[in-house]
Amino acid sequence: MDLKQVDPKQIVTEGYDRIAEQYCAWASQARREERAKYTSVLLEQLPEGAAVLELGCGAGLPTTRQLAQRFTVTGVDISARQLALARHNVPTAAFLHADMTQLDLAPMSFDAVVAFYSLMHVPRHEHPELLRKITSWLRAGGMFVATLWPHGNEATFAEDWLGAPMYWSGFDSTTSTRLVEEAGLHLLRAEEETMEEFGVPITFLWVIAAKPTQAHVQGG
Question: Structural domains in the chain?
Answer without folding.
Answer: 3-219 (3.40.50.150)
